[in-house]
């Protein structure tokens, strides 16, 4: 019936639609539109993955995650992934392979997150967003499942990314 923008920021638009169901009942649907996002598994070596540890304000808890973030409209998904790696962990991938796509919160957002594996990493540091502080953590690939069980890794996006990676040839063959 109608659509209204309730709020905007550099990362998303918060909308409210008024709709009619097949039985002519009316309702409101609140949702977030985004430019999408990227998340990257940076492989430092065949058995070492780089992750970031950061404090998550809404949960008031530290989270261990794969690097990633919102897409800037002016860049391709691949270039967004490269930028995020350089900002968050100080590395640039010479090789970037897409292994999947998922929606992190279906029913609430139209966001699609593209998942990449970053290989052949070289040192390149870009300045991170002022609101982000990271601790870089190098982990043995075999310790990731333990970190999930110990609830050190609890981000849904990181969990979805790990599931995609474990089913990829890069995990099965040791890249």
In terms of quaternary structure, the protein is single chain
Beta percentage is over 45%
Structural class determined from secondary elements: alpha+beta
Radius of gyration: 18 Å
Q: What share of the residues lie within helices?
A: 10-25%
Strand runs, count? 10
Note the total helix count.
4
Short overview:
The chain is an alpha+beta fold.
Helix and strand topology:
Blueprint: E1 2-8, E2 12-20, E3 26-34, E4 37-45, E5 48-56, E6 61-65, E7 68-70, H1 77-88, E8 91-102, E9 113-123, E10 135-140, H2 144-149, H3 156-166, H4 169-172
Structure description:
19% of the residues lie in helices and 46% in strands. Strands 4, 5, 6, 7, 8, 9 and 10 form a 7-stranded mixed β-sheet that branches. Strands 1-2-3 form a 3-stranded antiparallel β-sheet, with no helix packed on it. The radius of gyration is 18 Å and the shape is elongated. It contains 4 helices and 10 strands; from the N terminus they run E-E-E-E-E-E-E-H-E-E-E-H-H-H. It is of the alpha+beta class. The mean pLDDT is 92.
